[in-house]
Amino acid sequence: MVQEDTTSEVPVEDLVSNDVLEFELDLLNKSIISLSQKQQTPPPQLLQRKKALEEKLKTLKQQVESGKLSSSKYFASLKSKIAEERELAKKLLHDGKKTQAAQSLKRAKLMENELRESEG
């Protein structure tokens, strides 16, 4: 089971942002290191998610570098995903799922920052 306080349970294929992928990967790596320091073996699903995040990040970078994904299409997908994450956060909050709602808002904020940085 993926711990709620370290990584989200959103399927990797639903993540579209470079910054969100890097953030999720960083959290996951910290969780794996923490488990290793306690001399615990990370659960296979954590290692599988790590591999999936790394592959998705690599693929995204390759698509941008090769021109298969234009910056305008990438930024449009971010804008769409931001709205989606904000709606999801509202629903989760309404359902009493505060931790998941906070994770959704965090992803939205990361994407908003990514957009802002690209514009300036």
Structure in a nutshell:
With 120 residues, this protein is mainly α. It contains four helices and no strands. It is globular.
Count of DSSP E strands? 0
Q: What's the number of domains?
A: 1
The total of helices stands at 4
Order of helices and strands: HHHH
Mean pLDDT: 91
Helix-residue proportion: over 70%
What are the segments in which pLDDT stays under 50 over at least 5 consecutive residues?
A: 1-6
Strand content: under 5%
Cα-atom radius of gyration: 15 Å
Question: Which class of secondary structure composition applies to the elements?
Answer: mainly alpha
Largest sheet: none
User: How would you describe the shape?
Assistant: globular
Distance between the termini: 40 Å
Task: Give me the secondary-structure topology.
Layout: H1 18-37, H2 44-66, H3 71-94, H4 98-119
Helix pairs in contact: 1-2, 3-4
Structure characterization notes:
The chain is globular and about 45 Å long. α1 runs antiparallel to α2. It has one domain (12-119). It has 4 helices and no strands. The chain has helices spanning 18-37, 44-66, 71-94, 98-119. It is mainly α and 120 residues long. The protein starts with 17 loop residues before the first helix and ends with a helix. The relative contact order is 0.15.
Entry keywords:
mainly alpha; 120 residues
